[in-house]
Amino acid sequence: MSHRQTVIDLRSDTVTRPTPGMRAAMATADVGDDVFGEDPTVRRLEERVAELLGKEAALFVPSGTMSNQICIKAHTQPGDELICDVNSHIYNYEAGGPAVLSGVMCRTIEGDCGVFDVADLEGLIRPENDHLVRTRLVCLENTHNRGGGKIFPLEKIRAIASWAHRHGLLVHLDGARLWNASIATGVPLRDWAEHCDSVSVCFSKGLGAPVGSALAGTKDFVKRARKIRKLFGGGMRQAGVLAAAALYALEHHFHRLAEDHHHAQMLAQAVRNSPHLLLHPSVIETNILYADVEPGWSTAPDFARALAQHGVLVLPVSPQRFRMVTHLDVSHAQVEQAAEILEQTARTLALRAA
Ligand code: TLP
């Protein structure tokens, strides 16, 4: 039996395997050397992404991390500062990329599950002074990973971007899961992107491609980004086999994200029904949910181990908190099953503890 049949893997939406249709698209992709700009499938993907995001150009890159870091480097000089939410992926999960790769400092804001307002930014721009760094960039994340898949409301992005631009700052959007925000709200991708100088999107999360992200912006920005991609070692040759998976994902797996959101609601309800577990945040907007295990009762790693014994994988992210993410490779029936196992495991442990 394959891993997929036996295990319900809710650790991340990055765990999906390419479907037979996607593999067929990859196998038959027309390819060329993309470092020479000669891969027709990569070009087609870049044009499609630019069009979807309403930008002049886009660039295919190996990962979301590289995409964010290329954008940061393209927007800044060493000694600059960027402003981001304290729980952002850029600040927490990219191995110190801004400091290591761009010589850029991060100034963090305590957002509400990753979402903040212009008022939170007021006063954070450093004045011109020999002692100080130059404030250069604001980074947003939509949906917000550590914020439990929270959507950054469009009006807030609009207000933040207009404030940033008025003060000579640039705005980067980490839209690894912008697809989910768009499906959940009905707001087209380009409406979010319009306010941002650069946007990064991932094909390897909810869309189910095995590899790949893209960044988008003006032609000039993407030209500079292409050079930085080379510098970072991200120039790929016959990458059309990967771009074909991304194109397939855009065509076949974008609109089905609504299913994942529905599945996340089912799991959220199971958490609400479970003793000693608390949803954080309590409202689930897309495909990510976090649950807190009551301290003194159990821990997230122990609870995750108990679930794993029943074939459900979740991701502990701290001693008391674990994450579940719904995706293409968990069916409706498996979500029902996972919800039941979750409640049952919590009840059994609660009885034992009593
Ligand atoms: N997130 C991964 C882990 O790194 C935590 C996950 O399992 O959710 N931006 C956001 C908002 C992300 O959630 C991720 C991946 C990335 C960027 C980076 O993408 P990759 O993994 O392609 O470098």
List keywords for this structure.
354 residues, globular, 2 domains, four-stranded antiparallel beta sheet, alpha/beta, Aspartate Aminotransferase, domain 2, Aspartate Aminotransferase, domain 1
Report on this model:
The strands form 3 sheets. A 7-stranded mixed beta sheet has the order 2-8-7-6-5-3-4, sandwiched between helices. A 4-stranded antiparallel beta sheet has the order 9-10-13-12, covered by helices on one side. It is globular. The chain starts with a helix and ends with a helix. The model has no long low-confidence stretch (mean pLDDT 97). 43% of the residues lie in helices and 17% in strands. The chain has 2 domains: 8-15 and 256-353, Aspartate Aminotransferase, domain 1 (Alpha-Beta Complex), CATH 3.90.1150.10; 31-252, Aspartate Aminotransferase, domain 2 (3-Layer(aba) Sandwich). Strand 12 (315-316) and strand 13 (321-325) form a beta hairpin. With 354 residues, it is α/β, with parallel strands linked by helices. It binds ligand TLP.
